[in-house]
Amino acid sequence: MMSDKKKKLTRRDMLRLGLSAGAVVGLGATVVSKSATKTVWQIDPDKCVQCGKCATDCVLELSAVKCVHAYAVCGYCELCGGYHRPDATKTDTAAESQLCPTSALERTFIEDPYYQYSVKEELCIGCAKCVKGCDAFGNGSLFLQVRHDRCVNCNECSIARVCPSDAFKRVPIEEPYLLKGKA
Amino acid sequence: MKKRVIPNDVIIVMVVMVVIATVAVVRMRQKPKGDVNPYKYDIEQYKKVDMALIGYCEVAEIKIDAELYGLAVDDDQIYVTGDKLLLLFDKNGAETKRIELDGAAKCVTVDADKKIYLGMADHVEVYSADGNCIDRWKTINKKSIITSIAVSESSLFVADAGTRQVYRFDKDGSLRSSFGEKDEQAGVPGFVIPSPYFDLLIDRTDQSLWVVNPGHRQIENYDEDGRFKKAWGASSIKLLGFSGCCNPSHLAMMPDGSFVTSEKGLVRVKVYNHDGEFVNVVVPPNSFDEHTVGVDLAVDSTGRIFVLDSSRSVVRVFEKK
Ligand code: SF4
Ligand code: SF4
Ligand code: SF4
Q1: B7 vs B157 pLDDT, higher one
Q2: Strands B175-179 and A105-111, how do they pair?
Q3: Which of A32, A54, B184, B216 is the right S-S partner for A126, CB 3.0 to 4.6 Å?
Q4: Domain-located, residue B141
C-alpha cells in the first residue's frame, strides 16, 4: 500500500511540474526508500545560473539532474529560446536548429502556430542549455531539478561542491521539488 | 598441506593496483571536466553592439520610488503608471502630481484635451489632468489583460493580451469593434501573444494603427476598422531583427514616422525607419540589468526617447548624438 507521503508527492508533482506518470511513480518509490534520510538534495531554480556543471559533476554517469518543464508558464512558442539555437534561421526540428546537445527536448505541434515542448528524461544530461535559452529569450518555463528516482543522495553532493551560485540545498523529503519563483 | 603465505609487499602491491584500477575506472566514467565546460551556453556574445551603431546618448533620468509599468509623454508632461499609482512629471523630471489608483495601470495614454486614459487589467479608466477620475469603462472580458492603449481624435484602441484582440472604443467608452482573428484568406496571421506583451500605436503621419504581433516578430499596419494593410519585421538575434519567442515588447513612433522598438530577453532599444529598415541602436543590451522586462517607450515632439527601465525604477531619457 502507498504511504500518505508518497500519494501527496505524486499528485503535487504531476500537477506542478507536468511530469510523466511513469516518472512520478518512480519518484514516489525512491522517496519511500529514502525516507530514513529525511532530507534530499535539490536545486533552487532562482539561484541556478545554468553553468553546465550539473551535466559534468554528478557522481552518476548520466546526471541525476534533469530539465523539467512548467507547462503553465510556457508560451508554446513557434520559435522557442530553449529549443532553438539563437542563430537558427528556421523554426523547424532540424538538428542544426536545436540547442539541446542530445535532442532531449521534444517539440510537438499543437495548432498553428503553437507547439508543446517536453523533456525526454532518458536523454537529458542536465546541461541547462535549454534552461538558459528559455530564461533569456522565452518565458523561463524550463528549469533544472535533481530527480530523486535517480539521485543516490550522496552525503556531499559533488555538484553542490562546484556549483558557482550555491543553488544546491537540502530540502525535506516531503517537499523534494523547488519551483521557480517559489523556492 | 603447507599453507602458502603471501608476503606483505605483494599484498601492498596488489592493494595499490586495485586502487589504481578503481581510480582509472571512475575517471573513465567521468564526464568532461576542466576549465572550459563544453555545455556552457554563452549568450553574452549576443549582447555586444558595435559602438558606431549606437545613435543616441543618455541625457537624463527620473528616479521613481515605485514599481513601474507604463509611460506616455506629451508636449509638457511625462505620465508614468506604477503599482496603484499615476505620476505626472514636468519636462525637467520634477514630480507635479501623484494620483492613487485602485489597481495597477499597465499602460497610459493622453489625448489632445489632456484626458488621461489608463489601461487597468480588464477595463479603461479616464482621468482629468488635475487627477480626478472622470470615467470608468465597462470590463471588456474577464480574461482581459490590457497591455497597451492609444488614442486618436475620435477613438481609443486597446490591445488585450488576454483575449488576443484589439478593441476600438468611441471616446465615451462605447465599444465599436474588435479584430485580431486569424484570417488566412485575407492574409491576416492573427495575433500570437505567448506572454503579456502586446503593444500598439497610432501612426503620427497618417493616423493608421500599428499593432505588434510578437509571436510573429512583426509589426502590422491596420486601418481604423481593423483591415490589415501591411507588415514589417523579421526574426533574428542580430540587430536587424527581433529576437526570442515574442518581440518587440514595446513600440513608439518618432515625429518623422520612424519606429522605436524595445525587446525583452535580449533587451535592446532600436530605431527603424517608416518602412521597417533598421536605422540604429538607442540602448544596447549591456546597458540594462539582467532580466529587465517591460521596457515601455515614449517619444516627445522633439524626438527625445523616453525609456521606462522597470528593473532600476527609472525613466531614462535619450537624445540623438
Ligand atoms: S551547478 Fe549550479 S549553477 Fe550550474 S547548472 Fe547546476 S545548479 Fe545551475
Ligand atoms: S538542453 Fe540540456 S538540460 Fe535541456 S533537455 Fe537538453 S540535455 Fe536536458
Ligand atoms: S547527490 Fe550525488 S547523485 Fe544526487 S545529484 Fe548530487 S552528485 Fe548526483
Answers
A1: B157
A2: unpaired
A3: A54
A4: yes
